[in-house]
C-alpha cells in the first residue's frame, strides 16, 4: 500500500475516532473502508446522485412545460406536465370518444418525453372527474402509453371539487434527462417540419406521430446531424420557431404558417439538409 496524507476537519476526525473505538478498528482502517464504500456508491448510483456530498448551487430551470433540476454528472431530474380539459364524454365537453382522448394524450406525453431526452421513471395521472370516469380513462391512457414507451403509470388523485360537467386530466412525467445531448438551435440553422399540421376538432388517430419516426429524428440530434428538436405546441409552427430562434439569439423567418400539436408534429433545426428524413424545409433562423 502507498502512504497518502490528507487534511481533515477536527469534527470529522472525532467522528472517525468514535467509529474506530466502537468497531475496534484503527483510524486508518475506517478511512480506507469509507473511501472504498464511497467509490462503490459512485460506481453504482453516482451517475445520478452524489452520495454524502451537500448539493451546492443546484441549478433549477424551466423549459416550456417542464422543470429540470441539474444534479451534475450530465444528468438532471425532469418533471414534465401535460394537461387536457374540456374534451371527452361529459355533458359540456367537446365530444370525443374517451379512448381517442387517451390515445392523443399518451402520444403527446411520449413525444414530449422523447424530444427532451428523458428516460421516464413514472407517469402520474390526476383528474378533476369522478371515480368511475377517472378510472376508465386511466386504464385506457396507461395501455396507450405502454404501447409507446416502457414506464410505470400511477393514478395520483381525482378530486371533483366543482360540478363542471367537463373532463380534466393532467399527466406528469418524472424522469432523468440525459444532459450529454445538446438540444441547442443555432443561428443559420434551417427550420424543418415533420408530421401533420392538425389539431383540435380536425385531429384523427391516423394523424398522430409514430414513435418510431420520433425516435429516429431524436437520434439525429444525438448524432449531431440536427441541432435541436421540439414538439409543436398549440401556437403552431410560428410559436415553436420563435422559441427556437430565441434560444439561438436570432430571429425566425418562416416561408409559411402551419398548425399542429405535440401529438402530431415536431420541428427540427439543422445546418444540414434533413429532407431525406421526411422533413420539410419551412424556414431558417437568422
What this model shows, in words?
The chain has 286 residues and is α+β, with helices and mostly antiparallel strands. It folds into three domains: 10-45; 59-178, PurM-like, N-terminal domain (60s Ribosomal Protein L30, Chain: A, 2-Layer Sandwich); 190-285, no CATH class. Helix content is 32%, strand content 28%. It has six helices and 13 strands. Strands 1-2-3-8-6-7 form a six-stranded mixed beta sheet, covered by helices on one side.
Helix content: 25-40%
Task: Give the overall shape.
Answer: flat
The CATH class assignment of the largest domain is Alpha Beta
**Uncertain residue ranges:** none
> Which radius of gyration do the C-alpha atoms yield?
24 Å
CATH superfamily membership of the largest domain:
PurM-like, N-terminal domain
Oligomer: single chain
- Average of per-residue pLDDT values: 88
Counting helices, strands and paired strands, the structural category is alpha+beta
Q: Give the CA-CA distance, first to last residue.
A: 61 Å
Number of helices: 6
